[in-house]
Amino acid sequence: xxxxxxxxxxxxxxxxxxxxxxxxxxxxxxxxxxxxxxxxxxxxxxxxxxxxxxxxxxxxxxxxxxxxxxxxxxxxxxxxxxxxxxxxxxxxxxxxxxxxxxxxxxxxxxxxxxxxxxxxxxxxxxxxxxxxxxxxxxxxxxxxxxxxxxxxxxxxxxxxxxxxxxxxxxxxxxxxxxxxxxxxxxxxxxxxxxxxxxxxxxxxxxxxxxxxxxxxxxxxxxxxxxxxxxxxxxxxxxxxxxxxxxx
Length: 247
Fold this sequence. Notes:
The chain has 247 residues and is an alpha/beta fold. Helix content is 36%, strand content 18%. It has 8 helices and 11 strands. Helix 1 crosses helix 3 and helix 5 runs parallel beside helix 7 (209-217).
């Protein structure tokens, strides 16, 4: 277990002092078609540590699509509520994997679940979670909102607002938001900035509509960047790098 450091000093060089990092479960499976790829988990953990070392307080939400996705389970005939709960449990597995990687790097981390399972992680209590952040612990919020029919995008936006985060960082495979799929279309154009309403009206696929609307109603910016770019997360916080700001 890493040693806790209870120091309030934060780096003035960072653009934000408290942020939410949202990544998909698929981002952790590397070239595999399923599950967790330990070297990939380790690489993402290194990215988080580099930002943590700047003095930035970090929340995380990780999807569960690398293990089970409720919507696809429902599409195959499973009852939707049950499928969504299975997806929530998958996010807990990913959160525990990331916790192990971060603590292996000396970053003290807490997994906080919306579904109580006291033997493996903490239940969600807002004031306690805020105190963890103040003590410079990384907080990984698992099990979504605890309710079916809500995605981890919505969970990330909800927790970011509750924790007083200054921005959501959405790690993807591309370096921002494009007017069309840049993998399929060579003439796809990247936005430097785009409004919440344009994301919704043009169906740009940054996050689901509930998450975008919640961010808009609380004026919470969303920074979309490439998680595959080494040092990208830290670079943006240092005022560099390529990204799209939704706001």
